[in-house]
Amino acid sequence: MARVVVNVMPKAEILDPQGQAVQRALGRIGVNGVEDVRQGKRFEIEVDDSVTDEELERVAETLLANTVIEDFEVIR
């Protein structure tokens, strides 16, 4: 068994209201100097050796990420 991680993040040109809310909250709790916050999703998937890299890319692209507004990275 292997653990695969899929990170999904909003594309750079997409507004991230959740990240902006976190950034504003940091200032309210006295944490200064944070220039930007982007909030995304992390998926951890346990797979056996029969699952190919191409299949993992397809899973991420069709099921885990909305590729219109999100980028993804598969880490095997």
UniProtKB/TrEMBL annotation:
Catalytic activity annotation: N(2)-formyl-N(1)-(5-phospho-beta-D-ribosyl)glycinamide + L-glutamine + ATP + H2O = 2-formamido-N(1)-(5-O-phospho-beta-D-ribosyl)acetamidine + L-glutamate + ADP + phosphate + H(+)
Pathway: Purine metabolism; IMP biosynthesis via de novo pathway; 5-amino-1-(5-phospho-D-ribosyl)imidazole from N(2)-formyl-N(1)-(5-phospho-D-ribosyl)glycinamide: step 1/2
Gene Ontology biological-process annotations: 'de novo' IMP biosynthetic process
Major location category of this protein: cytoplasm
EC number: 6.3.5.3
Pfam families named among the record's database cross-references: PurS
Keyword terms, alphabetized: ATP-binding, Cytoplasm, Ligase, Nucleotide-binding, Purine biosynthesis
Subunit composition and interactions: Part of the FGAM synthase complex composed of 1 PurL, 1 PurQ and 2 PurS subunits.
Protein name (Swiss-Prot/TrEMBL): Phosphoribosylformylglycinamidine synthase subunit PurS
Organism of provenance: Corynebacterium imitans
